[in-house]
Specification:
Oligomer: heterodimer
Structural class of chain A: alpha+beta
Radius of gyration of chain B: 24 Å
Number of helices of chain B: 12
Strand content of chain A: 15-25%
Distance between the termini of chain B: 9 Å
Largest sheet of chain B: none
Helix content of chain A: 25-40%
Number of strands of chain B: 0
Order of helices and strands of chain B: HHHHHHHHHHHH
Number of helices of chain A: 18
Largest interface: A-B, 99 and 90 residues
Number of strands of chain A: 21
Helix content of chain B: over 70%
Strand order of the largest sheet of chain A: 8-9-10-1-11-19-12
Chain lengths: 637, 325
């Protein structure tokens, strides 16, 4: 027994010693001289096949490694991407794109017009097939909205595209240009059906793209590493590699940023963001949201199958009056800690060129709300509660999905304000999948019964306002998207007109009218445009440049300009005539070492770990030893 | 051990697993709403045709019984757990396997360390009842037993990783690092493993210590211990060869039961340390409503608990002849 224990113990020590030995070189070794930008995200990368992109991380990755036909500049204007020049005919239906000469894919193959032709024809084929879509079905509308009919290559560097109607939106098409020599080996099914036995997941590393960095390694659920594309056509970025690290929670991400283990975080909560203010070597960026949070109404309340609690919901005058009893600025200040802008129209201020304030904004005024409700014929009962035209006391059910974290606070405020105007509120959360179904009425499908009065939810848009405008056309009712059932023939006409507008001024006038019409109908009350909260370290990289400059963030925007703008924070400026203002000049081998302060990845101090390991072994050994010693001591007695 | 005992145990386990498979199916199909609307429903530009096509692709348009049920049973028996909704192109089995290793590493080691330390502490406390080790050990055990995993984890994280910087704050490996050899890789994992392992071990030590202590106290009053003392055997030998083996019996059961709770704790510990195991997978799949993956996780964990309990029964049968009827 004693000997067996001894054998067990010594075996254990041997294993532990081996572990300790393994720890020493692993910790003491520093990372090679790569300058790596590490970005923390709370949205996991799920797919590398762009047709299936759903999360923010999916999109960010594909827009770094692939070029769009036309990219987005620092102020969201069209900028050279796969094409370096473009023009449209006077009638706006024929479009020419010049593909940059001498461009190579990251594997060395020439990048030419054939790649654009392949990619766009792939979309057209998918849309025209029986199935009607490919992958998640989210990217095709960027081409179908332009009315694209055909593309052809006049030669290796000149593409001609024909659209069925005038369109300026080809330069906004958010479709990555894929390498024909790789993707054409796979059929539409193999690319677009995830359960096809030969499904092409695009996970052969390194991925072949034309962007400045391409995916080189992917630990699912953990991180993805993108390495520099040596064949990139533009000025190389300063980082040698970019890593996206996945985090399950914002707290851990915040800790990692403070420790210098990551260089950038998106998706912080308001209190974490505020706590970073003033912290050394950390800079924050508050970006306008390309989207909004709204209070939406069931405007078909008493129609069969819609099950709203009161006919008042169908009355625009009623809904309009309620809007005067919502203090949107107070919601921003109290529910968002000030990180947002009070809501007005359904085209957010992020779209600086297209957002137009309404002529008759509903400023917060309880008296006005009361007057308007009186004028609209909603008198108060004996208990102070207003009754509708059928004599029923009005109580509005307000619900929201469990994914909306701020909504409960918002609902509480609304309940307080509406009590002052005699409107009751029943506020409650609904599980998201259930809520989606509750919002769908018979127009979605015969067996569907809507059951709601008002909901708090939100929308997010694209660089072009088309997608946000499209939400309220009538064909989006059967699609389950136009949840307030806004039905306006004129709005539908205007939507088509703005798609085909040939000048910015003309388009602005149309979009202005659309915003005003939707605002007047009070189908939604847009509550606020909640800001996006990002933070970044400045001791490793500087010159973080927001896109757009006012109200944008450096990355997680559109295109990859933010990644190319950042500079090495510790690089010494080169003296004398070599110094230029071209950001590209400070990148590359001329930059003197050392590169960057030691981060967690460079290996921390190994001593505590050794001490800890030895302590662990000692405790375990001690446990065994005590038991042995008990016996020995007694025997000696 | 008798064949009848073995057979009974095995049949019982199989029956339980069958029940689990059935519940698995019903539970996730009974949830309200539809996965394709959940994933794609509020994306502008996604038409109803797309949604219907997706539904059809996922086999959700067929009637629940018998079509979907039969398909499900057949597939599960062949080990085909379907495709993940969110990680396009990956089967559920692939997703589970890719995340199983880290969890096994963390909790396997954690259990081992906790058992070794907890049993030692508990045995010594019980043997030297009333002594300093007993009092202090008991207090610490109770404290650790009652502290939730995530609290323990956050405390360790904030102290040792953020404040002192001795350990990394997240993950299993340093992202994107190039390793020179196996030991280098091993060392990186060990550095990342230290704090989560400490959390899991500390969380479990309390239970084992307390249980072992009371087990030892029980055996101290047994007749055979009195006999052994009367025969003049040394205290140490009495402890090791007479008291301990009998006191170990409840621990075997506890370890098996713990597998189930440990897995629940896995979620909180893994989320705190961003450990890429089944816990973080479950959280991600939950928020993404990735039902096939959730089903797969549920099935895997339930079967694990059943098998662990089966193993505990069999080991118990080996250890304690009185049970093998």
């Amino acid at each position: 027994m004693r000997s067996r224990l001894g054998v067990r113990l010594s075996r254990f020590i041997a294993i532990a010693a081996l572990a300790a030995v393994g720890l020493v070189p692993g910790v003491a070794r520093a990372q090679a001289d790569d300058l790596v930008l590490t970005v923390g995200t709370d949205q996991n990368l799920r797919v590398l096949n762009p047709w299936f992109s759903v999360t923010v991380a999916d999109y960010e990755i594909f827009q770094i490694q692939y070029d769009l036909l036309v990219s987005f500049g620092i102020d969201l204007q069209p900028a050279p991407g796969f094409a370096d020049e473009w023009s449209s005919s006077d009638d706006g239906m024929t479009h020419n794109f010049h593909i940059r000469e001498g461009m190579l894919w990251s594997d060395g193959e020439p990048a030419t017009c054939a790649d654009v032709e392949y990619t766009f024809e792939f979309v057209l084929e998918a849309v025209n097939s029986d199935r009607g879509f490919v992958g998640s079905g989210y990217l095709e509308p960027y081409l179908t909205n332009t009315g694209l009919e055909s593309v052809e290559c006049e030669d290796e560097h000149n593409l001609v595209a024909h659209t069925a109607h005038p369109s300026t939106l080809l330069t906004q098409a958010y479709i990555p240009i894929l390498p024909e020599h790789i993707w054409s080996q796979y059929s539409m099914d193999e690319i677009g059906r995830r359960n096809d036995p030969n499904h092409f997941a695009n996970d052969q590393f390194p991925v072949v793209g034309t962007g400045p960095y391409v995916a080189a390694a992917w630990e699912r659920g953990s991180f993805i590493r993108m390495e520099r594309n040596e064949n990139y056509w533009g000025t190389p970025g300063v980082p040698d590699a970019i890593q996206f690290q996945n985090f399950a929670g914002a707290d851990t991400m915040d800790q990692a940023l403070r420790r210098g283990e990551i260089d950038y975080t998106g998706g912080l909560t308001a209190d974490l963001f505020d706590a970073l203010d003033g912290v050394e070597n950390i800079q924050t960026a508050e970006g306008y949201s390309n989207g909004y949070t709204m209070l939406s109404f069931n405007t078909r309340a008493t129609q069969p199958g819609y099950n709203g609690s009161t006919s008042a919901l169908e009355d625009p005058a009623f809904r309009d009056a309620l809007g005067f009893a919502i203090d949107r600025q107070a919601l921003v200040d109290r529910a968002l800690n000030g990180h947002g802008v009070a809501g007005l129209t359904h085209v957010p201020p992020y779209h600086a060129n297209w957002h137009v304030e309404p002529d008759n904004p509903r400023d917060f005024n309880i008296d006005t709300a009361n007057q308007r409700l009186d004028a609209a014929g909603y008198s108060r009962g004996a208990d102070g509660r207003r009754v509708d035209k059928e004599g029923q006391p009005i109580e509005i059910r307000i619900t929201w999905p469990d994914s909306e974290e701020v909504a409960p606070t918002v609902a509480q405020f609304i309940e307080g304000w509406w009590e002052q105007i005699g409107i009751g509120v029943d506020a409650y959360v609904t599980e998201e999948a259930t809520l989606i179904d509750d919002l769908l009425g018979p127009e979605y499908g015969d067996q569907y019964q809507a059951d709601w009065d008002a909901n708090i939810w939100g929308w997010v848009g694209d660089p072009d306002p088309t997608s946000l405008l499209s939400l309220f056309t009538q064909d989006q009712i059967p699609a389950g998207i136009n949840d307030c059932f806004y039905s306006d023939d004129r709005y539908d006409e205007l939507f088509q007109e703005q798609l085909e507008a040939t000048s910015e001024d003309a388009r602005l006038a149309i979009i202005d009218e659309m915003q005003q019409r939707f605002y007047d109908a009070a189908c939604y009350h847009v509550l606020y445009y909640d800001s996006v909260l990002h933070a970044m370290r400045t001791d490793k990289f500087t010159n973080w440049t927001n896109q757009p400059p006012v109200g944008g963030t450096p990355i997680f925007g559109y295109g990859y300009s933010g990644y190319l703008a950042i500079q090495d924070a510790t690089a010494q400026p080169s003296p004398g005539p070599a110094e230029t203002t071209d950001p590209g000049a400070t990148a590359g081998p001329a930059t003197p070492a050392p590169s960057g302060a030691p981060t967690g990845s460079a290996g921390g101090d190994s001593t505590p770990l050794i001490i800890g390991a030895i302590a662990l072994i000692a405790v375990i050994a001690g446990g065994f030893w005590f038991m042995r010693r008990r016996g020995a001591a007694v025997e000696e007695e | 051990m008798g064949a009848r005992y073995l057979t009974r145990r095995l049949l019982s386990a199989v029956a339980t697993i069958a029940m689990i498979v059935l519940i698995n199916f019903v539970l996730f199909r009974a949830m309200p709403g539809s996965p394709e609307r959940m994933l794609l429903g509020r994306l502008p530009g996604v038409t109803q045709e797309v949604l219907e096509g997706t539904r059809e692709r996922w086999g959700l348009d067929k009637p629940l019984f018998p079509d979907q049920f039969v398909a499900y049973i057949g597939a599960t028996l062949q080990g085909d757990l379907g495709f993940s909704y969110t990680e396009a192109g990956s089967t559920v089995t692939e997703v589970l396997l890719s995340r199983l290793g880290p969890t096994l590493l963390l909790f396997g080691l954690g259990e081992l360390v906790a058992i070794a330390l907890g049993l030692a502490l508990g045995a010594y406390s019980g043997w030297k009842r009333g002594g300093l080790v007993d009092h202090v050990g008991n207090a610490i055990s109770l404290f650790l037993y009652s502290t939730p995993y995530f609290l323990l984890g956050m405390a360790l994280l904030v102290t040792f990783a953020t404040a002192l910087g001795w350990f990394p704050t997240f993950g299993m490996v340093t992202p994107g690092r190039q390793y020179t050899d196996v030991l280098d890789h091993f060392g990186d994992i060990a550095r990342h493993l230290a704090l989560p392992l400490a959390t899991v071990s500390l969380g479990l030590i309390g239970q084992y210590a307390i249980l072992m202590r009371s087990s030892i106290l029980d055996t101290l009053t047994e007749d055979y211990v009195t006999t052994a003392r009367a025969k003049g055997l040394p205290e140490g030998r009495i402890l090791r060869s007479h008291a301990l083996p009998n006191a170990l019996l409840p621990t075997v059961s506890l370890v098996a039961i713990n597998i189930g709770y440990v897995v629940a704790g896995a979620i909180t510990v893994e989320v705190v340390f961003n450990w890429p195991g089944l816990g973080t997978l479950t959280v991600e799949a939950l928020s993404a409503r990735d039902y096939p993956v959730l089903q797969g996780v549920f099935l895997l964990l339930s079967v694990t608990v059943v098998l662990a309990n089966l193993a505990a029964d069999l080991i118990y049968g080996v250890l304690d002849p009185r049970v093998r009827t």
